[in-house]
Amino acid sequence: MNNDNLEFLQDSLKYLGFGEKLLLNQQLEESIAGEPKEFQLDTEHFFDEDHKLELALYFRRSEQADMYFFNKYEARLRSATDLELDRAQVFYISKGRGVTLKEAFNLLQGRAVNKDLTDADGQKYNAWIQLNFLEKDQYDNYKVKQFRPQYGYDLEKTLEKYPIKELKNEELKAGLIRSLKKGNLHPVSFQKILKTEKMFIEANPQYKTINIFPAVNRHGRKEPTGKGHGTMEELHEDEQAGTEAPKEEELETTGGKASTRKRTYK
């Protein structure tokens, strides 16, 4: 077994937000020890009580060297309250980098995520990405909308149009912007004339604005759920994923097709 390759794959899982689950790492090591041409690992993750992600991770053995590659994973969003919200998408991994687990959750919830990407010619660029739930490609994946800087969406300037209390504190402002770029629905305080009102906001690059949702206390309607709330604690967890991607010299990719079957859970 190539222990360096195993360590790289484990680091990749950690970087992508799968954490350091003992069982998942153990299954990874046992699968590689069997030396199959390819294999799949299944796991799941809960972000709140109403939604979970069922995940299928796909690995493939190199034809040129004693190593395996984590090429892609399929994320299936399951809603306990509305089957129509069940969605699936395959996310491809390149040299240990790609859409993180939390970002996948946010994308499947319909929100936009800001990512540094690489085009077919190897040129790096930045863009907001968002799934188009009205169109799918030949692999049954949702097509991805992209909004590059030249599109003209400036998140910071957009936020300054609103009386958001957190913008007055540079540390809170920076944390808010980072959270929104990760696709989170973030709690903020709107400073009104006679009171401060709690709201939830999310980035909307397509229409060059932000979406605003009222937060009602437990005596009224429930606060938004399943939205990837961008609290400071969650933001810290997000930043542990996607900060230091491992390095790898070779990459192999395979095609994939996302499953659209649905089921409920309790």
Structure in words:
The chain has 266 residues and is α+β, with helices and mostly antiparallel strands. It folds into 2 domains: 3-151, no CATH class; 155-239, no CATH class. The chain contains 6 helices and 10 strands; from the N terminus they run ααββββαβββααβββα. It has helices at 3-15, 22-33, 101-108, 155-159, 170-181, 232-240, and strands at 38-46, 51-61, 68-79, 87-92, 113-118, 124-136, 142-147, 186-191, 196-204, 209-214. The strands form 3 sheets. A 4-stranded antiparallel beta sheet has the order 1-2-3-4, covered by helices on one side. A hairpin with a 6-residue loop joins strand 2 (51-61) and strand 3. The radius of gyration is 20 Å and the shape is elongated. The model is unreliable at 217-229, 231-236 and 247-266 (pLDDT under 50).
What does the secondary structure layout of this molecule look like, with pairings?
Layout: H1 3-15, H2 22-33, E1 38-46, E2 51-61, E3 68-79, E4 87-92, H3 101-108, E5 113-118, E6 124-136, E7 142-147, H4 155-159, H5 170-181, E8 186-191, E9 196-204, E10 209-214, H6 232-240
